[in-house]
Amino acid sequence: METDFYRQHRAYIDAVSRFIFVSDLPGKSDLIFLPGSSHDEHIRLAAKLYAEGYAPYILPSGFHAKYAEGFTKDPEFDSEWAWMRHLLISFGVPDSRILREDKATFTWENATFSRKVTDSMGLKVQRAILCCRSYHARRALFYYQAAYPDTEILTVPAAVPSIGPDNWYLTEDGRHQVLGEVRRMGSQVQEIFDCLMEGREPPSANTIPFEGN
Question: Which of 139, 150, 149, 155 has its CA nearest to residue 192?
């Protein structure tokens, strides 16, 4: 719904929305990437895309968020990967089609550690689908594309009804999440890029600015 606030500030709101909310149509791919999370929307979407035949494998990635002492969503699981694997299997994905990356603690590591997994398997990823939460799409795409520069990556995000391109600015949580992504696209990316330019080891969970996954 168009509000007076939106009409007054639409240029700012639309610019942020276009930048953060990236979305492509799915296409036949070699792999579906799943960055770590304690939310299940994008996990359900990945299982649906697998069932529809878009890719033969799914690669969930994640140990736990760097600011947490462990995976807190469910004490039965010791990592985001284990929890996501459990959900994927419950949604009908065969265990043999779920690859494993259970060390990453933020999105840059989700991408670069996933690359190590596919390289170790000799899996050539010419096209991949990236499933993430909608407001995480820009940063996730940025990092996965950096890790797979020769791969066509289709970003197919899962909708978060309360935080979408048309309503994120209406709630405190929506503003926090979306503008936090804008901020991290500066602070995290600068830290990583400086390391790469200077030939230093890219930042770990202990050195990246403490601003979320």
Answer: 139
Alpha carbon distance 34, 81 (integer Å): 9
pLDDT at residue number 196:
83
pLDDT by residue (tens digit) across 37-49? 889 999 999 999 9
- pTM of this prediction? 0.89
Which amino acid is present at 93? V
What does the block give as tokens for 98? 């779920």
* Alpha carbons 56 and 49: distance in angstroms, whole number: 10
Task: Quote the tokens at residue 148.
Answer: 């797979």
57-96 burial code (b ≥16 CB/10 A, e <16): bbbbbbbbbbeeeebeeeeebebbbbbbbebbeebebeee
Closest alpha carbon to 19 in 208, 189, 192: 189
**Cα-Cα-Cα-Cα dihedral sign, residues 30, 36, 41, 43:** positive
Q: How far apart are CA 131 and CA 60, in angstroms?
A: 10
3 state SS of 130:
strand
Residue 173, C-beta contacts closer than 8 angstroms, at least 6 positions apart: 162, 163
